[in-house]
Design a protein that fits this description.
Oligomer: single chain
Structural class: mainly beta
Number of strands: 42
CATH topology of the largest domain: Jelly Rolls
Number of helices: 2
Radius of gyration: 29 Å
Length: 533
């Protein structure tokens, strides 16, 4: 077959005039049944390959009395999906007058376009363009790039500088209305991303000023459906799209309407791509992927003058009073030999861990480690010294000016690990348990691996315990706020200063910019860093 994302068609026929339907199934998928228009008539079915490689189709004929024939099998191979028909990476040097095309025609730029802008962290983009929202803020190859009456997809990285008006990311000229329009629409309910084509409009997601998002609009001519993907996730579908010819020029940052070019984009745009096929969900997710970046890994194996180093010579953690590093080699206690010695549990991970006394013990970075307003991941290994502590105890926190942006703590009254966040950075702001998960041990156990993952792309935050999460540990979080305080281990901010001191052991503190996958989270706390591939 032509490749991933390109429909193929299979015709099923039988020499018998008594066959009224066919039962069929593609390798790895469910079986379905299709009826013939009349007994003995052939039937043709569409097939959209979602992955490359060898495939097979199994078919059985069914006659009018319900008898089923033996199975016939057809083997075939699907090629890899073909690349875009047009692509502008928009990574040209500052001062450029046009955008080079990796595929297609170079796009001239208006004077309201600035090259050399920042790219979304963790993406494959290296730089972007900034458009100032004026009538001179656009790029165009001065030609069409695809026949929108046929299947196509268009995508880009975008960062709006405002969200209170309609703005276009990409479009293609077609007279008084663009043939299609991918961008931002301001509605009564607020701003939303939008893909409009042939009388169909799909809206979804929540644009945020100054934040990057990946958009992909798809028109499937086989089904007549328009789809919108935001940050790799489907945001909506609209049926019965009937696009007209749009042979005019492709536009970046504006849309042609009756009065001229309108809905001018204000903000950043990067890596614009146009495909003449279906971009399948796995490919959409890959285009929108933002690879997490390791910010710090503190193994807490040792400390010099109260300072425990970061593994890659990054910012260290400073130990406060009541905190110390325990190493397994420090103990010579063997109860079988000396019954009077006090048993000390072995190191949590590796050769040592941080010991906190529950009264004044803590460790802290010199400043904020994660950006709490963007996607993040934090992991830690913790063991409680008491199975039934008298009060809540915080393992990790990072403060704003007046209160913690978040804290991960153990709540003894419910035997739960909790993720707690305030409504805003104000003195006395109400706190909310946004997610929680049951489970604790104390004393001599191996401890627990805790992780917090905030995914700004999906507006969700998750709490993990030993690599697992559940419905009670997943919550919606539309907008995190940027905290300015230092990362704290073993204590939390309170109205009276510091409190909720942890009595127990802590090890393997790991921090990432970006949201780790479930697979990545399962690799936290083992002494090494999980694969980010």
């Amino acid at each position: 077959m032509d490749g991933v994302g390109v429909y193929g068609h299979f015709t099923m026929d039988s020499p018998s005039d008594d066959v009224v339907s066919y039962k069929y199934g593609f390798m790895g998928g469910p079986y379905d049944t299709v009826s013939a228009e009349r007994p003995g008539a052939a039937v043709t079915i569409p097939y959209l390959p979602l992955s490359a490689g060898p495939k097979s189709l199994a078919v059985q004929a069914i006659d009018r009395s319900g008898r089923i024939s033996g199975e016939s099998r057809y083997d075939f191979n699907v090629k890899a999906g073909r690349g875009p028909v047009a692509r502008w990476k928009l990574d040209d040097p500052a001062g450029s007058a046009s955008a080079a095309a990796e595929t297609g025609t170079a796009a001239r730029a208006g004077i309201g376009v600035t090259f050399g802008g920042p790219a979304p962290t963790g993406s494959t983009a290296t730089s972007t363009v900034g458009l100032d929202g004026s009538s001179h803020a656009f790029l165009t190859p001065d030609t069409s790039v695809t026949d929108i009456r046929k299947t196509f997809a268009v995508s880009a990285w975008v960062r709006p500088a405002e969200t209170d008006r309609n703005m276009t990311v990409v479009s293609q000229d077609a007279g008084e209305e663009p043939g299609f329009d991918l961008g931002l629409r301001h509605q009564d309910s607020g701003a939303a991303w939008s893909f409009a084509i042939g009388g169909a409009q799909v809206s979804g997601g929540a644009p945020e000023t100054g934040e990057w998002a990946h958009l992909l609009g798809l028109y499937d001519a086989e089904t007549g459906k328009a789809r919108l993907y935001v940050n790799g996730h489907e945001a909506g579908t609209a049926a019965d799209a009937t696009p007209a010819e749009a042979a005019g020029a492709f536009q970046i940052g504006r849309a042609l309407r009756t009065a001229g070019y309108e809905d001018l984009w204000h903000g950043g745009i990067g890596d614009v791509q146009v495909h003449d096929r279906v971009v399948v969900p796995d490919e959409v997710a890959e285009l929108a992927q933002r690879k997490p970046k390791l910010l710090g890994h503190w193994s807490l194996e040792n400390a010099t003058d109260g300072v425990s180093p970061e593994q890659s010579d990054g910012a260290p953690l400073r130990l406060g009073a009541g905190a110390s590093i325990y190493r397994g080699s420090d103990s010579s206690c063997i109860p079988e030999i000396d019954p009077d010695c006090t048993y000390v549990p072995p190191p949590l991970v590796g050769d040592g861990h941080l010991v906190l006394d529950g009264e004044s013990g803590y460790a802290a970075a010199d400043g904020p480690v994660v950006d709490t307003g963007d996607s993040l991941t934090l992991g830690v290994v913790v063991r409680l010294a008491d199975s039934e502590p008298a009060h809540p105890m915080t393992v990790l926190s990072q403060a704003g000016e007046h209160t913690d942006a978040f804290k991960v703590r153990y709540e003894p009254s419910t035997h739960t690990w909790q993720l707690v966040m305030p409504e805003k950075d104000e003195v006395g702001a109400p706190e909310k348990v946004v997610s929680q998960i049951v489970g604790a041990d104390g004393g001599e156990g191996q401890g627990h691996r805790l992780a917090v993952v905030y995914d700004d792309a999906t507006d969700t935050i998750k709490l993990y315990l030993d690599g697992h999460t559940n419905a009670q540990a997943i919550a919606s979080l539309a907008n995190g706020w940027h905290s300015s305080g230092a990362l704290q281990i073993g204590r939390a901010m309170s109205d009276d200063g510091w409190g909720e001191y942890l009595h127990g052991d802590v090890d393997e503190v790991q921090a990432y910019a970006g949201a780790l996958t479930d697979r990545g989270v399962s690799g936290l706390g083992s002494g090494t860093d999980p694969c980010l591939c």
